[in-house]
User: Fold this.
Amino acid sequence: MIISKTPLRISFFGGGSDYPSWYLKQKGEVISSTIDKYIYIDFKKIQNLLGFNYRLVYSKVENVKNINQIKHNVVREVLKFYKLKDFYEMHYNGDLPSRTGLGSSSSFIVGILNIILSLQNKNCSKNQLAKESIFFERNILKESVGSQDQVAAAYGGFNSISFYPNEKFRVNNFISNKPNIKKLNENLILIYTGKKRLASDIAKSFIHKLNDTKKDTIVEILQCVDECKKILRSNSISDFGKLLNEAWIIKKGLSKKISSNEIDNIYDKAIKSGASGGKILGAGGGGFFIFYVDKDKQKFFLKKMKDFQSVDFRFVDTGSEIIKI
Assistant:
């Protein structure tokens, strides 16, 4: 049995500039961090003793005889693309719900490709794993996705990730800013809206406009990335919340599908409850909010926001890992 453990991530600034429709023409950059919430995939060979050749256990249970009968799109296409000849059983578990803006779809792909490459005895670097995951999600699954989530899940850490027109990327870790990163972590709260959504459906509403009518919006989003770097290098991170608020306002300009009256009401309530700023994570439309709340205001904030589930988390430096049993 092989088990992969792959982190989820929080993307703070730069989202949108990691889509190839933008960075194949000009540089994109995001700032994100992996967190101590994971998806776990265990994979093992099985014998055809129970009348099926493939068994998948996730939110559903599938027992099928051939690959084409598999309903789980990612697993089916992985087995076909990598031409695995043996029969397999897969179990999936996640610490948090999928489709909630924490990069779970890409983390799943990174995790399962990490397993497949390990089965093929390929000594895969973080760079190779990220590239292979981006290629698979975009070219095999034909998903309308960016490139930051695959890189974050493969590398791990609190990073600035730059994307270039030659399709290369560079990961810069903020390890020298650890005291500020730790303090930042203490002042951030995840709030679940209770709404799930398919990120690619929202992305399709704006990605073809990024170098056209939405160009100015992406330029503003990238300015937030530069401002974030200044804040993290300074002696105080108190302006981080205000920058999140600014980024949220800018982000909503990408598409009407990113927010809604319900989501705006949650945000307004959070601000009135003590948050200095926040933004919805991922493509938008639901999922998790991240809010900046000073520690001395957090008790009051959580009391006022008691109708919504909050999640404690910590930044982590590790990317996708393999455990062999």
